[in-house]
Amino acid sequence: MSRTKPEIHWLPRRTGAFHVPPGAAPSAVVVGGGIAGIAAATVLAERGVRVTLLEKEAELGGRAGGFAEQLPTGERVQMERGFHGFFRQYYTLRALLSRIDPKLSMLTELADYPVLGPGGEVQSFSGLPKRTPLQVMALTMRTPHLKARDLAQVNGLAALEMLAFDAERTYARFDHISASDYLASLAMPERARRMLFDVFAHSFFNPEAQMSAAELLMMFHFYFTGNPEGLIFDVVNEPLGTALWRPMASYLAARGVRIETAAAVTRIEHTGQKIGVEHAHGTVTADMLVLALDVGGLQAVITDSPSLQALWPNVSAMRATHPFGVLRLWLDRPVRPDRVPFAGTTGIGMLDNISVYERFQGESARWSRDHGGSVVELHAYAVPPEASADEVRADLIAGLHAFYPETRAARIVHERFLMRGDCPAFPPGGHARRPQVATVLPNVVLAGDGIAAPVPCALMERAAITGFLAANTLLAPLGVMPEPIRSVPSQGLLAPPSFLRGKQPRSLELDEAAQ
Q: Where does the pLDDT of residue 408 fall: very low under 50, low under 70, confident under 90, or very high at 90 and above?
């Protein structure tokens, strides 16, 4: 396979008819209406399966969903659980969204997403080459935070691991150490590490000291060193519910999917051939089951369902990571015209990024035009568990004032603050215990961004991939063709051939170096 071009995978195997046999359509229940559940329901319905989709919230979308918020003026707007970047290598997610718009006209490219640091420090990522290692060389030469003398001190062998991802080798060698230990082993100046790596590492909601170095290296590969599409991403130009999930619900309904919202599942009865799912509105019976839930939801359903206890060994080790905080502010005056739509931040408190919504989303642009203000959203990833909501909120506002001083004089017309703790943890040593899509029950599968995937992926793309794979796994025994999975290259440019995977230079034994 090429190490510079996307791959196409037909999993579990490329065979069969596109559609289930006429008159013999099986039924499936998909529990969870986030990206993973929607992806699974889409493929199953397209192949002729009778699908019921159950979602506990009032709207579809999961962590990428939204909800209505009423402003003091009486206006109703959409609030979301944080900013979402739709990277160009999110091939599976984009394939899912192309069902409702083949041109993906709901997405708009951002020209840059700079990282801002204390004292006016800025690191831009625009205009980098797409090819490896050209983009690494260009970033290294461009950044003002690495001097020639600094490069001479960097641990080159450790740094080259970012270009040498191979799932088997990388997880065997690095899953037992933390991301913070790996980053420390680079021997990079603190200022350069902060501007080049800290924002990236925080974006996965896991604190570096409690995140697997192998997971971090996989994400470097997926987003940067193995990404054929470049670092720039797209954003949705209207609220996510309006632009994505309501049209997606219409698409599914047109294919016979029965969608039940506000339908929290309380218990599941698995009798072998049939599965009964009890939820807030009643009970539905089906032949197949997809559990597309967050960590807490998945563990709760299995705990409350004695007939699913065979799944417990697979999911018992899963944990949610630290909470994340989102604060959206409707301000009475605009931020400076040169403020970018999205900026990562580092070095000041808990603040990890600032989004100026009127710069990319139509609803906020209309509000800004009508009221002369700005809609600003602040994010804190991996919030220390001991921090209170009031402390996080105050810290985020202080960070905003430090990075965008013009906001100090602004009056907050309205605000909405959220703290949630439902993102999956990726701890050192956790990879081997991470549950797979297939389970010991042949008609029950798992999906979500905490489930293991056979290709490099993360966040929304992992949810979409495992959703497609969940459907493929259920369809395979029926002799039905799987949905193809497109991914970035499975291996990095410098990944050694298989016969060399067992060779490990002592200088890369980072666990020993960190002791």
A: very high
